[in-house]
Amino acid sequence: MDIAVIGGGHGCYAAASEFADKGHAVRLWRQNANVFRSVLDNRKLKLTDHLGTRDVAIHLPTLDLREAIAGAELVVIPLPCTVHLTLAKMIAPHFEDGQVVYIPPATFGTYIFAKALADSGNTAQVAFAETGTLPYLARKQTEDHVRVSVYATRLPTGVFPARASDRALSVISRVYSGVEPLKDALDGALMNAGPIIHPPLIMMNAGPLEHFETWDIHNEGTVSSIRRVTDALDQERVKLREALGYGAPHFPLSDHYDDDAEEWMYGDSSHEKLTDSGDWRENIDLLSHRYMREDSALGLSFLSSLGDLTGTPLPLVNGFLSIASGITGEDLRASGRTLESLALDALSVNELRALLQDGFVA
User: Fold this and answer.
1) Is residue 10 domain-shared with residue 100, that is, in the same domain?
2) Which structural domain range is residue 347 located in?
3) CA distance linking residue 203 with residue 319, whole number of Å
4) Full-prediction pTM beyond 0.85?
5) Same domain, yes or no, for 38 and 185?
6) Which of 19, 44, 176, 187 could form an SS bridge with 182, CB 3.0 to 4.6 Å?
7) Distance from first CA to last CA of the chain, Å, rounded?
8) pLDDT by residue (tens digit) across 219-245?
9) Tell me, what DSSP letter sits at residue 42?
10) Beta strand segments in 36-160, E
């Protein structure tokens, strides 16, 4: 399959490497020529995973976004949600009829990309899909080498518009066999584990994060009191899902830590594989790191606004959002990703469901 991978982050390199390793023709786009130079010149990435280390050939590394998109059956965008608004406008004119765009995960970014496509005047029929996590626990070792500690085994996925679900999921499942269908894109957005796991881990570990040069929030930073908080925060996500009419399975985060429970998105023993790798022992700046700017500022604000829509109390969601605002000195609810910022706040729940199903009908 011809696949375009957009971006140069950890998940982007992991996706491009996995697809190429499986024999797909991969176009890999990145903006920064300086850090991309080795890949541009050598047309390969180095992949390390449970099978060892090997070079994989990248069919077309490019700095040209149009060139990356042209002719691709599947476009994968495993980038932080903080780039969605800018990237969606850049990429919208280049989408082609029949393409499927997979954004793992997206915090309802599927809507942002679909809206940008509609606003651009491009009439291509494109399906946008999102899931609850990156399909990889991965970290780049250098600018041409990525290590994947864990591959996702289950990827609950929703599509915008939902009427295109069958077609979109059939394409995505050709590269991700663990894809599981959801009702729609909002169902997929409410599977996102990032706003549940990361805000408590960074804010409740603020002392050691600022004291030590590096700290592993997933290893010594994951203690029983924080785990109780993440479970309680996750219950608010589940209550919100139920208020919006989404049923089980909810993929509770507690299953990620319990190998005796139902298999979570990354499968059994994934937490141990993550901590054993040592790749998450890092310096996390509480003002700028994506756990603050993506999962807290965007992820929690999105949940908060849905709580307002449904009348669902979310004390921990709003509490962590307030603490994050205190840490950054910014009103993250006002500047976050909300129904208001997406201009969807005037819709009723039924009107929102209709939009999710039908998309932007000309």
Assistant:
1) yes
2) 194-245+265-358
3) 11
4) yes
5) yes
6) 187
7) 30
8) 999 999 999 999 999 999 999 999 999
9) H
10) 44-49, 52-57, 60-62, 74-76, 100-103, 127-131, 136-142, 145-151, 155-160
